[in-house]
Amino acid sequence: MVRLNPNDRFAKHPTPIERPPPPPPPPGVATGGKGSGGGGERTPRPASTSSSSSLSSSSSSSSESLTPSTPSSFEYEFGGPLGAFLTMVSLPIVTLLLIRWAARGRIVWEDVDVVRLLLASPSCPSSRFLHFLCPSCDDGPLVELPRCALVVFSWFAFQVILERVLPCELVEGAPLPDRHGGGRGGEERRLTYRINGHLAFWVTLMLLDVGWPRWIDVVVEGGAKAATTTTTGRGGPWPWPWSRRVPLTGGGRTTATRSVLTLGRAPLAWLYDHHAMLAFVTIAYAICLSTYLYAKSFALDDGDGDGDGGEGARRPPLLAAGGNSGNRVYDFFMGRELNPRSLGGTFDWKEFCELRPGLIGWAVLNMAMLAKQRDRLGYVTGSMVLVNVFQGAYVWDALYQERAILTTMDITTDGFGYMLVFGDLAWVPFTYSLQARYLVDHDPLLSLPALAGIVAVNVAGYLIFRGANGQKDAFRRDPNSVEVSHLTYLRTKRGTKLLTSGWWGLARKINYTGDWIMGLSWCMLCGFDSVVPYFYAIYFAILLVHRSVRDDRLCREKYGDDWDRYKSIVPYRFIPGII
Ligand SMILES: NC(=O)C1=CN([C@@H]2O[C@H](COP(=O)(O)OP(=O)(O)OC[C@H]3O[C@@H](n4cnc5c(N)ncnc54)[C@H](OP(=O)(O)O)[C@@H]3O)[C@@H](O)[C@H]2O)C=CC1
Ligand SMILES: CC(C)=CCC[C@@H](C)[C@H]1CC=C2C3=C(CC[C@@]21C)[C@@]1(C)CC[C@H](O)C(C)(C)[C@@H]1CC3
């Protein structure tokens, strides 16, 4: 394991470019071996005067609001406590309904009635509701529910184990925003992250494709051995305790059998059969995790933002400015603690959840839909292959660029509350995989020219998305590098530069435009018979517009008048010359 300075040529861009290189890590701290993690170390630095003004420019991001005391005035987002409450209640329902409607291929309003049953008795769902979740479950929903709970738990635990044991790079994130509120003597501090998501992605795929364990009964007859088909009963090839062994018979007499553990392809189609029920239990876990994190945000640690409860004086943890209103519902939704951590401060809940279980889970669900379609039809359609390739590439890209996430709004600014926990763990895998779910039963069998056109749309979207994000990454890393040295920029009073040509000269959020175009191409693979697969394009447009407004506000706070100047140079937000 190596510790990377994000300023070096391999790192993406967690460190603003104008900072001096960090001091070398103290001996023994940098390696962070297995388990010891190193992810919780902080690197104290002298405060940078160039950025200090930006951290105290608004009431909602002031240093005071990073302490647990309730701020006197608070700027609510998302419609305040009522909006937060309604969003919390409605999003799980929308998730379950969307899965149901993708399975049916259209919106069926009567399904809303069944969801009312859940609201009537959320802690003990009725059997009618459980049937709604899993109409074709083999063993009845009351057996399948704990089974799904175990599968989701195992998936999460498996991803945690990979994060812990795989080799990683240790990369520092952006400076913590607590220099005045909680920092030690005005020092600038950063958290260290274990970056090994890309490896975890490939290990997971390998396991599912060739490394899935299952028992094969080998028949031993007259000294000869012959492998039979697996005989693990209705649990099928699942190596779980509920699998049943069935004695083999051959030629009228019972033969001796010996169980052998083999490796093969995971029975992914099982995920299709239990899609809604898996979503249901994931939502339940997301609620539990949000509750734990909310409670944890009141516990004292050493107040240095790494959540390790470590060596310093016992103080409240570093809180997110936007999740510290004093209203419990709102704060639960937004997330109080900025960087909740466990395992001695080495395990970062937010970074982990944002990229691992949900995002990789999305790719795996897509593969499950492909497997199911192959089982059903005996072949796989062009749309199904393309949706797997496009979305798989999107997930891969996110994990390959893992350290780029360290400077996103989610990591640097937002707390880790219900919104992100639910979004990361349940919303992303189960609603982003709806196109593949839809295609299993409602594939429009698009013509080759139609598929080629959609490939072109996806490639165009990807080139814009990757081009713009890559250009900004390269520029933030080293503005003199050959890739970006020809670009013009605006030097701000804060010290950082803003690109005014290349992709970023076309529109201020051109990366969002590319991302949305890609998303549209995924929906188009489902044809035009139903609006259900287009849910993603509609939702994503709303999310990106809202996010661009939030980022615009944050940049106005960071850059002041310079941001207005930048906006006059690059007047368009999404589409050059239009919006
Ligand atoms: N699939 C999904 O569900 C989602 C995908 N995304 C994707 O994630 C990606 C990252 O999104 P996000 O983090 O929101 O936003 P951006 O990548 O656009 O980052 C915004 C930040 O970039 C910097 N910046 C803005 N303009 C310039 C410029 N002209 N030159 C240099 N730096 C500039 C500013 O920070 P500073 O100056 O401090 O560096 C600003 O705060 C996007 O491509 C988005 O589409 C996002 C949300 C959900
Ligand atoms: C409706 C609801 C619950 C919204 C919560 C929002 C989250 C779903 C999204 C907020 C930011 C996200 C990002 C990604 C996924 C969706 C969420 C979690 C992301 C990981 C997707 C892949 C990209 O390449 C990305 C890494 C840039 C991106 C980061 C932001």
UniProtKB/TrEMBL annotation:
Residues 48-70 have a biased composition (Low complexity). PROSITE patterns: STEROL_REDUCT_1, STEROL_REDUCT_2. Keywords: Lipid biosynthesis, Lipid metabolism, Membrane, NADP, Oxidoreductase, Steroid biosynthesis, Steroid metabolism, Sterol biosynthesis, Sterol metabolism, Transmembrane, Transmembrane helix. Residues 1-70 are annotated as: Disordered. Pathway: Steroid biosynthesis; zymosterol biosynthesis; zymosterol from lanosterol: step 2/6. The keyword Oxidoreductase applies. It catalyses: 4,4-dimethyl-5alpha-cholesta-8,24-dien-3beta-ol + NADP(+) = 4,4-dimethyl-5alpha-cholesta-8,14,24-trien-3beta-ol + NADPH + H(+). Residues 30-41 have a biased composition (Gly residues). One of its GO terms (molecular function) is Delta14-sterol reductase activity. Coiled coil: none annotated. It is found in: Membrane. GO terms for biological process: alcohol biosynthetic process; phytosteroid biosynthetic process; secondary alcohol metabolic process; sterol biosynthetic process. It comes from the Eukaryota. The chain crosses the membrane at residues 78-99, 199-216, 276-295, 377-396, 416-434, 446-465, 516-545. Gene3D superfamilies: 1.20.120.1630. The keyword Cell inner membrane does not apply. InterPro entries: ERG24_DHCR-like, Sterol_reductase_CS. GO terms for cellular component: membrane. Residues 17-28 have a biased composition (Pro residues). Belongs to the ERG4/ERG24 family. This is Delta(14)-sterol reductase ERG24. It comes from Stephanodiscus triporus.
